[in-house]
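In this supplementary section we document a worked example of the pipeline. Step one takes a protein sequence of length 365 as its only input; no multiple sequence alignment statistics are reported here. Step two produces a three-dimensional model, which step three serialises into structure tokens for compact storage. The input and output of this example are shown verbatim.
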Amino acid sequence: MAPLTGRMTTVGAALMSVALAVVVVGIRWLFATYAVPLAADQLRASNGRADESRCIECHSEAGTFRDTGHANTLSTARTGESVELLRTLNGAVAPQDEGTGISIRRGKPFVTFDSPSGAGKLPLDWCFGSGRHARTWVATMADSQGATDLLEFRWSWYASIDGFDITPGQPDQHFGTYLGPCGVFYDHPKARRCFACHSTYLPIDDGRLRFEEIHPGVTCQRCHGPRADHVASEGEIGDDFWQTATAEEAVNRCAQCHRRADEVEVDEIRADNALLARFQPVGLVQSACFKASGTLTCTTCHDPHRPLEMQDSLGKWQCVQCHDPSEPAHTLCAAGQQADCLRCHMPRVQGDDPLRFTDHWIRVR
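The serialised model returned by step three reads:
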């Protein structure tokens, strides 16, 4: 697992690319089996899947879920919003200084570039992210064995600045290769991981991601598994995971994509590591609230079926479930505050890029 560093130096990034190229053949079989964070029989199974348009017949929350960030975390680059955002890149100084621009042909966006090895253009195929924090685009291509690789576009759009900056993890200066101005190239195992965390159904045929059948976005059956039997039985056959899971099991279900604590180097789990805020489960399980309660999970405070803007409770969120001033036995704020808990105990922090995340390591600072 990559360390929680910010942007790579040019030399460090180059060395990393060389190292990956050397070992990829030897470990491809391993990643082909284990790189998908959700059990392959759920993420890749075609049998047993229900038509999710039917969920709303019995579950009213399906009506609000369609507006969540999870449901909209992956789309084709051809959508109207994606194309309009990419058009604005042409007015951004830094990309133009690097010889990068955007052209639209028959509704499809292309990266135009001028590198030391020559000029060219590359089609962008997919847009990652709902836009609540950022959007990042990728181009997909087949390697010599037909497996799907991807190129992560060098420039991402950030909501906090309403503009473009370098994609997290990419070097401050691009590689002087032909496709260097376009971004960083990743092989098939990385491509699988990216799409696995942003989709509900990911069919793969001998390493080729079958995009014509992919179910983009994290929707009902991504978290609840294939539900054809649930629909056929009119609800008699259900999913009891969320009712029976321990707090750790529940958090780790979300952490399949938001990262588990055991996937992070021990010396990086520090209260002063601002980059840790991006991986909410890692911080949450360090919290005294999590350790002491035995019941605190992501869904204790977040309703995954509603957009975040529908859940705010004056900065307290669900803190009063365990810190209620009307309950004498509850531990209360030593500063005497009864609102705006997040400002002190879970502030939004920023790393070395425009992204800001709420720090889920709940603590007295």
